[in-house]
């Protein structure tokens, strides 16, 4: 961890968010948004995700895992730590660096829970993450995304347990097969990660956070204007 890392109170959770290089981010939005717009949107969604996670009960520390210096700077501006991720495309590399960051957090975070959280959750509400953490009872639990195939959050309660991340295609099934329990709460903002234009439209309907709303307003995304930003952070 970088110097922003500190030791949180015992029993409080440490949230890990992995973000790839900005030049490779959100390629499935390329048909609607240019490179600079995608970059700005990724950073806006990260800011909203971090703000919501920071406001959740039971969360003591946030760390962004990234090889991108701009993402690392935004993480620090939002009060999060930074764990350096070597650049690369391989999903096993992503899972390996998540496992390494989780082990680092577990060794220095008061032996509390560790949460691997998606960084593109613009509609996340603090109470949703609080409720998911409170609902977790098994050593490892997951929150399935709104598509039913991905993993919005992976939670490990046992400080001696491996996070054992299985992110990548069909990760929800792979996490279930690895023994993680499925959490079934009504948490639409926690489940709504954004990869496609349809996901972004769904986020507009649900109500994004302030940073994402402002960026969508700037680029003129349909359904959101400066006079109509449905923002709910409680």
TrEMBL record:
<feature type="binding site">
    <location>
        <position position="151"/>
    </location>
    <ligand>
        <name>phosphoenolpyruvate</name>
    </ligand>
</feature>
<keyword id="KW-0808">Transferase</keyword>
<keyword id="KW-0548">Nucleotidyltransferase</keyword>
<comment type="pathway">
    <text>Cofactor biosynthesis; coenzyme F420 biosynthesis.</text>
</comment>
<dbReference type="Pfam" id="PF01983">
    <property type="entry name" value="CofC"/>
</dbReference>
<dbReference type="InterPro" id="IPR002835">
    <property type="entry name" value="CofC"/>
</dbReference>
<comment type="function">
    <text>Guanylyltransferase that catalyzes the activation of phosphoenolpyruvate (PEP) as enolpyruvoyl-2-diphospho-5'-guanosine, via the condensation of PEP with GTP. It is involved in the biosynthesis of coenzyme F420, a hydride carrier cofactor.</text>
</comment>
<keyword id="KW-0342">GTP-binding</keyword>
<comment type="similarity">
    <text>Belongs to the CofC family.</text>
</comment>
<dbReference type="GO" id="GO:0043814">
    <property type="term" value="F:phospholactate guanylyltransferase activity"/>
</dbReference>
<dbReference type="InterPro" id="IPR029044">
    <property type="entry name" value="Nucleotide-diphossugar_trans"/>
</dbReference>
<feature type="binding site">
    <location>
        <position position="168"/>
    </location>
    <ligand>
        <name>phosphoenolpyruvate</name>
    </ligand>
</feature>
<protein>
    <recommendedName>
        <fullName>Phosphoenolpyruvate guanylyltransferase</fullName>
        <ecNumber>2.7.7.105</ecNumber>
    </recommendedName>
</protein>
<keyword id="KW-0547">Nucleotide-binding</keyword>
<feature type="binding site">
    <location>
        <position position="171"/>
    </location>
    <ligand>
        <name>phosphoenolpyruvate</name>
    </ligand>
</feature>
């Amino acid at each position: 961890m970088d110097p922003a890392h500190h030791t949180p109170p015992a029993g409080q959770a440490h949230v890990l968010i992995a973000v790839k290089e900005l030049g490779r981010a959100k390629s499935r939005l390329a048909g609607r948004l240019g490179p600079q717009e995608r970059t700005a949107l990724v950073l806006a969604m990260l800011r909203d995700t971090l703000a919501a996670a920071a406001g959740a009960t039971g969360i003591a520390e946030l760390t962004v895992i990234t090889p991108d210096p701009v993402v690392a700077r935004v993480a620090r501006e939002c009060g999060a730590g930074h764990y350096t991720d070597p650049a690369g495309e391989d999903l096993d590399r992503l899972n390996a660096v998540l496992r390494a960051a989780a082990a680092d957090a577990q060794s220095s975070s008061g032996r509390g829970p560790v949460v691997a959280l998606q960084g593109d959750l613009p509609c996340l509400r603090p109470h949703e993450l609080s409720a998911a953490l409170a609902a977790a009872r098994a050593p490892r639990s997951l929150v399935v995304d709104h598509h039913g195939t991905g993993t919005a959050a992976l939670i490990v309660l046992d400080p001696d347990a491996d996070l054992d991340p299985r992110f990548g295609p069909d990760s929800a099934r792979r996490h279930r097969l690895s023994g993680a329990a499925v959490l079934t709460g009504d948490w639409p903002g926690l489940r709504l990660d954004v990869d496609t234009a349809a996901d972004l439209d769904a986020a507009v309907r649900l109500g994004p956070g302030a940073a994402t709303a402002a960026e969508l307003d700037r680029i003129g995304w349909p359904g959101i204007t400066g006079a109509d930003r449905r923002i709910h952070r409680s």
